Amino acid sequence: MAGFCLLLNMACTHKNSSSCIVDVSKPGVEVAPICRGQELEEFNHGLEGGLYAQMINNPSFEEVSDWYGTSGPTKYWGTVLPGSSAGTISGQTSANTGLINSHQVHCVKLAVTSVASGNVGLRNDGFWGMKLENNTTYKVSFWAKKGSNFSGTLTAKLESSGGTSYASKTFTPTTSWAHYTCDFVTSGITSVSGNNRFVIYASATGDVYFDVVTIMPPTWKNHGCRIDIAQKVDSMHLAFLAYPGGFDAHWASYDYCRRWKESIGPLEQRGGSTSYCWGYKNDLYFGTDEFFQLAEDLGAEPMYVFTAGIFSDGCTTLPIVYTPIESMSVVTKDILDFLQYCNGDTLTPWGAVRAANGHKAPYNLQYVEIGAENNHRANDSAAYAQRYRIIHDTIIKYYPDMKIAFNGQLYGEQYDPDKKKTFNDHHGDEVSHPEGQSFWAVDDHFLSNDNSGRYNFYDSANCDPGISKFMIQEYCSSHKGMAANVDADFSDALADGIFMLGCEKNSERMSWTGYGNFGSIVGHGDFGANLLWFDAVSCYGNPGYYMHTTLFGNNHGTRILPFTAKTKNTYFSASVDTAAGKNDILVKAVNKTDNSEVVDITLSGASDVNPVGHYTVITAANDATNSIENPTNVHPTTGTFIAGGRFTYTFPARSINVLRINAVK
User: Fold this and answer.
1) Predicted structure pTM score
2) 318 pLDDT exceeds 80?
3) What is the pairing mode between strands 441-448 and 470-477?
């Protein structure tokens, strides 16, 4: 490939019909962190079973029946019954037995009626698999108590799905709840797979009760995140990390919501969310402190998304609910408590709680958003505007420097494969106009079949001059739609690459952009294409992930350079990279068509141009994707080409390109 490019891309000796002139002498505004922000929301098992490394599915037995009709507290749990041994498991409430505390609503009872052929076990297979590696430490934790009719012991084991033991320890329970922990170091594992399980065996007949059962493998920076997934995220070089959503941020009643106060402190004190938008329980084990710690570890600015006092989602049959204006103090007080937890010193009530939870220094939260997609439905807009102003003014009263984002529009058509038709229940392609509101940035979302037509969307001629900054917390092209387990292919990455280049060239109006859906367990998604996919053993990035890292994460310029392009197929952005003593010109280009394009490139105002340029390119068939079996089917390659103050470059068909050229003005 390198030799091919050296032959085709050479010092320009004739004029082509396609050209791009970059004015190196006039560096402009700082390059915005395009594709260097990411929203984290609990759906698709992106956090539980994904980024958060805890390995037990339904660890606190709170998977109660919801709008999807899922089973109760024993979901994802089973028994191991050797031979004629017998026993059952059942969910328990405070009506049946004493619980650990008021935060926990359920526990499980293992009722053993026979151990004639061996011990009876309570079994969990993880999130559709449980990865175990040899000579590795796993931190096991569970709560247990026995009934008066049980006189045996409990043996916790990590073992294969067939029962081969890799680590074990025996405990003697009492009639009172007690917390049992141990560090398992595995041995005897000859190959890595997900065909494993965790079992707690009872040695005698009788009743034993369990709750809050967890296993933690080694984690990224020892802060709870799964190593391979966190490394993928770290490679994106994020500047912003937003949380918790999305629909997960919606609530209008404190009886049905994601409660941040249930997401801090010891796990047994986390009751989890009472909202079931995505069809499974959010235990909130990846909670407030875990989010801020991850942002700190990534070197990213945290951004927290508050409710606007509106509950609305398309996932359940529940109606849209608005917090009455006269009751908005419930919402604002909860928000002020949260901000004090994040930013208050240890002499404040909630700052003291944060310190007690292990983070004495304030988190210094500077960016928040009020609401999540609450301004794109006709019925929501007026209600959102009223509630936004109340929340905004309350925050600014106590935190005058807080940067607050306003919900913009949700753009784009989507194809519904079930109904075999395209639908568009969103506003058209007019730019958001939040009349009369005060804000730092407007958050527009783009979930569409094809975003490539939006290259010039944020050009000054198309934007309301009253909006100084836009943020795109969610964007995604997916020509196959946004149904569960749909994966975007390379044609979608090309479309999004064009849109994102357009955002970068308009950096003066952009705060940051990020992909719509963070990650999903393969085969167990809830909605749409995802940047990362994983099973219990491994993970991979979709083609859009490599578009992110190639165009932006690994090639983030310092200042925008003006350019003039006259091309048929190729879209550009240009910048200078002066970080770490460099002085490199970055010419980024996407060609979405099936035809290559030869372009004359001029670096106007540059001198002492290094004749050896470096390229990074991704090319593939439109329908190419990555997978667990072939995680780098679509990925970048690198090489060199002949550069100069003026040179010719051939941009291949269906390609994402970065040209890096060292030059002195």
Assistant:
1) 0.94
2) no
3) parallel
